[in-house]
Structures are given as C-alpha cells and as structure tokens.
C-alpha cells in the first residue's frame, strides 16, 4: 500500500498526551490484567483470544492456561512472516509473556528471546511462567519502548502485539526497534487501525488511549510512521475483528477499529 506523503507530516505524530501520564495509566490497567486475568476488560484475553487470532494450535495446546491467561493482543504477529530457527527475537511490551513463549518454540534452543515490559506485575508473571516452562532461552527485561534495554543490532526479528498504539511517540519507539535490529532484520507486529478519524478532543483522552482507541492510527498513518522510522518494504495484513464480542466492541465499531499485522525490513 502506498502512503500519500504529501498529506502526512512528522509533526502530526508528535505526542498529544503526556507520555509519563499515559505510561502510568497503562501500568495500572495492565497490572490488573496480570494479577486478575479473569477480570472484566474491554478486550478479549487468554486462550480464547489466541484461538480467535489464529495462533498455532500445537504450540498453544502445549502451554498451560496460566501462561496464556494475561494475553491481550489484537492480531497474530507471527502470521506476518516466518521466524527461522536460531533467530534472536525482541518482543516490545511482552506483557505476561505469551508471545515470547510462542517465539521461543519457533526459534528453538539455538535462538534467544528478550521480552521488554514496563509493568512490574507483568514482568513477575512472565518470569514465573518462563521458569515453570523451563525456558532457558527467554529473558524478560524492565524498560520502555522509547528506550529499549537491548544493544544495537542484536535482534533478527522485533515483534509486538497491541502495544505501539499505547505509545505516545510512535516514531521514537519505532526508531528504537530499528536500532536493536541488525541490517536486514525484520519488524513484524500486530496493532489496531482506525477506519474513522478520532477527533482531537478524544485523542487527548488518556482513557480512550488505554481502551486501545485514541492511540490507533489509520493504515496510511501506520505505513507512514514505519517508513519515517527508516524501515523499508512495508506490508500490511488483512483486517481482524479484534473486539467483536468484547465489552469494548461498541467503541471499536464507532471508530471502525480492526487489528492488522505489519511487516517491514531494517535497511
């Protein structure tokens, strides 16, 4: 898909909310998902969500419910392209660790996976589950997406799921993703896209951000910010009805929110 660069400028993607205030609200909401995954949320969670999004059945069947309970993604980033055995993977906003556990199975014992998250309760849960699963090739680090605790050029693949919409400065976060990728490395993530414009007043509402609405971009805007961060060969997957049947479905329908995968290459 081509993006009309004449209608989009980098200044349009400057943060419209206070990044620290947004992070605080995100931590609060996702701490609850970590500690009370069976609670009522505006999004789907856990094993039923992984099934809905088409995650590999063989991998999911081998995982206990506790390793999947806090999963709250919006699409399947692994559907965007293969992750070869032996790869080194970074998961942005790794939450309770489910996507890292899937990646660990795909890369095998010769590969490595680093999950980065800023919510202590999610990190505790992910580390506990990784230990129970005996995954020696998975590590979870505390950090934010705008300042990843990963060295330059370490990763072959960077993944994320429903996380970048929660970041105020997306171009900054994507620049960090490119920094930790080797040349030729792949960014493949899942996130929400809005089919109807979110009004300026709503884009300043932190509650709408944590509801995965206000921080969403259109497909054209997503492809623009990915390219603005220096990535090439941007590809977008088909829409997924991420919120169908969830408590947040009405708000999602108001702004025509759908999940998508995105794939791009670090030059």
Any overview of this molecule?
With 267 residues, the chain is an alpha/beta fold. The chain has a single domain, classed as Rossmann fold (3-Layer(aba) Sandwich). 33% of the residues lie in helices and 19% in strands. It is built from 10 helices and 7 strands. It has a 7-stranded mixed sheet, with helices on both faces. Helix 4 links the parallel strand 1 and strand 2. Helix 1 packs across helix 5. The longest helix is centred in the first third of the chain and has 17 residues. The chain is globular, with a radius of gyration of 17 Å. The N terminus is likely disordered.
Detail the topology: elements first, then pairings.
Blueprint (H helix, E strand, L loop, with lengths): L18 H17 L10 H7 L4 H5 L26 E5 L5 H10 L4 E6 L2 H14 L4 E5 L12 E7 L8 H11 E14 L5 H4 L2 H5 L8 H10 L3 E5 L12 H6 L2 E9 L2
Parallel strand pairs: 1-2, 1-4, 2-3, 4-5
Antiparallel strand pairs: 5-7, 6-7
Poorly predicted ranges = 1-11
> Span between N and C termini?
19 Å
Structural class: alpha/beta
**What is the CA-atom radius of gyration, in angstroms?**
17 Å
CATH topology: Rossmann fold
The CATH architecture can be given as 3-Layer(aba) Sandwich
- The run of helices and strands is HHHEHEHEEHEHHHEHE
Q: How would you write the strand order of the largest sheet?
A: 3-2-1-4-5-7-6
Main β sheet profile: 7 strands, mixed
| Global mean pLDDT | 93
Number of alpha- plus pi-helical segments? 10
| Whole-number count of domains | 1
